[in-house]
Amino acid sequence: MAGEWLAIDIGLPDKPEVQELIDMTGQPVEYVCFRLYRLWSWAAVHCADGTARMTIPRLSRTCGGDDAFWRAVAAVGWLEIDETAATVAVPGWDRRFSQAAKARREVAERVREHRDRSAENKRLGLHANARETVLKRFGRQCVYCGAKEGQSMMGGRRVSLHVDHVVPIAAGGTNDDENLVPACKVCNLHKGDRRLEETSLDIRFLPEGFEVVVGNDGRVTGVTRPRYQRRGEERTGEHPPPPREAAQPDQAAWAKLRAAWNDGAGQEARRRPWKPLQPPDEAVGRLVEPGWLEEALEAIPRLRACRYFKTWVGLPQFCGKPAFVRKVLDGSYDDVNEPKIGPRGPDDRAPPRVDPSFEAARAATLAREQARREAEHRRLDELAAREAS
Ligand SMILES: [Zn+2]
């Protein structure tokens, strides 16, 4: 294979084995050394562990020399010929070639992974960087078994992570962030096109703050990071959250509230719309209070005028205290005259001033980075194409 290296002892021509081969075969040193070089380079490409299916006549055709020469190589202990099994072996393979073999295996693995990944992204219609984004978000760890990317497995291979759809596309799943988690090859293949409940898998390894989202039918529909975490609640990140209590939210009311929130609560809500299909716990209780929803729908667009909040109000906070919505409506949070009060609302801030030279430098850096990534992809594509041919 092109681009491969073979480590050869610079003292090879003077080795006793080579001298013995010269004596036994009557061939000059160049002949002997070149035949050996052909043998080892052939073996480096075709032998996984130093053994390959090969007969002496075929070896002579491939590497030159003749029957007598290869039997002499065997006689000095540099080749093992098993004529009944039709194999040849290179003794001391590990010591001699394990570095090259290891490097080759790693390149082959990376090429294969790259190919699988490109094909996977294409098949799923995912953005090219989707895998990287998902892996980063979850700390490069399989959410089902906790295997870390690059960790060694049995057989010398390394863990590679796939992007798994919690709800498979075949079962109506989407490419939304909430539905994408990293899974190792083993878990991913085991899960296949099934819902989690149909497998023995469970989402057990999540970074702190992430939660499993459960649909109304009690089945897992994805994973989300809550924008706000209840105080005093400790998460180890290794155990699934306790099953939610079977509070039955009013779905129609929740749909109305969510739509109004995503559309009307200002810049922050538009940038990070409230995605989970399940309302936050705080909302479940509010939605059944008579009249609350009507007031909430009225209060949401008014949130922008509230200058009392130093940080943006999240939906759970909005639904949290019984009197919160009432106070938004009656202007309790609009107090602009109080000197101790924080900055004006996020929508009112002047746009940041950008230094044009800084912007240009940033654009150049991004372009360079992009070019580097594309070159690496091209290189891996070429390797993949060459390997396939
Ligand atoms: Zn796994």
Secondary structure elements and their pairing?
Layout: H1 16-25, H2 29-46, E1 51-53, H3 56-63, H4 67-75, E2 80-82, E3 87-89, H5 93-124, H6 130-137, E4 161-165, E5 180-184, H7 185-191, E6 211-214, E7 220-224, H8 251-264, H9 267-271, H10 281-287, H11 292-299, H12 315-320, H13 324-329, H14 356-388
Antiparallel strand pairs: 1-3, 2-3, 4-5, 6-7
The protein binds zinc ion.
Notes on the structure:
This protein has 14 helices and seven strands. It has 389 residues and is mostly helical. The chain has three domains: 12-98, Arc Repressor Mutant, subunit A (Orthogonal Bundle); 125-246, no CATH class; 251-348, no CATH class. The strands form three sheets. Strands 1-3-2 form a three-stranded antiparallel β-sheet, with no helix packed on it. Helix 1 packs antiparallel against helix 4 and helix 5 crosses helix 14 (356-388). It is elongated. Mean pLDDT is 79; it is low at 228-246 and 338-343. Bound molecules: zinc ion (ZN). The site of zinc ion has 8 residues, from strand 5 and helix 7.
Features:
binds zinc ion, 389 residues, 3 domains, 14 helices, three-stranded antiparallel beta sheet
Nearest-integer average pLDDT: 79
List all distinct small molecules, including ions and cofactors, that are bound in this structure. zinc ion
Reported for the largest beta sheet, the result is: 3 strands, antiparallel
How many domain regions?
A: 3
Envelope shape: elongated
Q: Report helical residue fraction.
A: 40-55%
Low-confidence blocks of residues? 228-246, 338-343
Beta fraction of the residues? 5-15%
What is the count of DSSP helices, taking H or I runs of 4+ residues? 14
> Major sheet: order of its strands?
1-3-2
The N- to C-terminal Cα distance equals: 12 Å
Quickly give the structural class.
Answer: mainly alpha
**H/E series:** HHEHHEEHHEEHEEHHHHHHH
Can you count the beta strands? Answer: 7
Query: What is the rounded Rg?
Result: 33 Å
